[in-house]
Amino acid sequence: MKTALITGGGNGIGRELVRLFAKDGYRIVVFSLVQEELDALQAELAQSLPPEQVHLFQADLSQPGAGAHVVETCEEKGLEIDVLVNNAGFALWGECVEQADGKVSNMMQLNVVAVAELSQLFGRKMKARGHGKILNIGSTLGVSPVPISAVYGATKAFVNSFTVALAVELAPYGVEVCVVEPFLTNTNFLKYSIGNSPTALSEAEQDENIAKASKMAHAPERVAREAYDGLMKGKTIIMPGPLIRLFFWVNRVRSQKAVAKVFYKAFGKGFVS
């Protein structure tokens, strides 16, 4: 039986990926921050999988050394990981200099350092075995500088670039690595990033922003399905939907600064005028 490890598998895209792996008979390993989400996931998976096929762990992957902790935990439990999904992450919406102290560092630790560490440590094991798969969740916002989400966009630029480079390095050893680069996705991730932005907007305006963003966002089921299918087909870059491919094309034909200015003009002061 093959084993899939999904970080941040308690909700959103991660949870949908858990469901897809479980449906195909994988042993499920999840590391996630929110215990309540893990409890709900445990109850759901218990309806279709035996207890020995489900391993759920509460962990804060935004802390230093989180990657080594995950690997050590798997080794202690005798879990050999065939598929690694680096899904855990969060965004900060608003001007970088206005973010709360420590938040930017935590985001970089989770979105960049944990992804690199887990990919390196599990990728090394996969290389030695001669097989394995790694799926990293990147973002369309990693394609161009993103004012009002400057650091988040930069973390996803790292994930996008790192994944493709790692894919080339590990391909000769039978290890497949791919990145999915979704646009806005209608999950708790979206609500957190916009709802906790350091702006002068009222709570009602924040709620209106979230509602408007949700209308533009993709369903997590769709993103997860396209990511899963692309991973199984051996793709390196997965772009869910024609709108995302159009964004990539625009970014290539226009300067990054020009695209950043357009983004800032559209979203810089929030969706509410």
In short:
By secondary structure, the protein is an alpha/beta fold. The protein has ten helices and seven strands. Helix content is 52%, strand content 12%.
Question: How would you describe this protein?
Answer:
The chain is an alpha/beta fold and 273 residues long. Helices cover 52% and strands 12% of the residues. The protein is built from 10 helices and 7 strands. The chain has helices at 12-23, 35-45, 66-76, 103-129, 150-170, 188-195, 203-216, 220-232, 242-253, 256-267, and strands at 3-7, 27-32, 54-58, 83-86, 132-137, 175-180, 237-238. A 7-stranded parallel beta sheet has the order 3-2-1-4-5-6-7, sandwiched between helices. Helix 4 (103-129) links the parallel strand 4 and strand 5 (132-137). Helix 3 (66-76) packs across helix 4. The longest helix is centred in the middle third of the chain and has 27 residues, at 103-129. It is globular. The N and C termini lie far apart (54 Å).
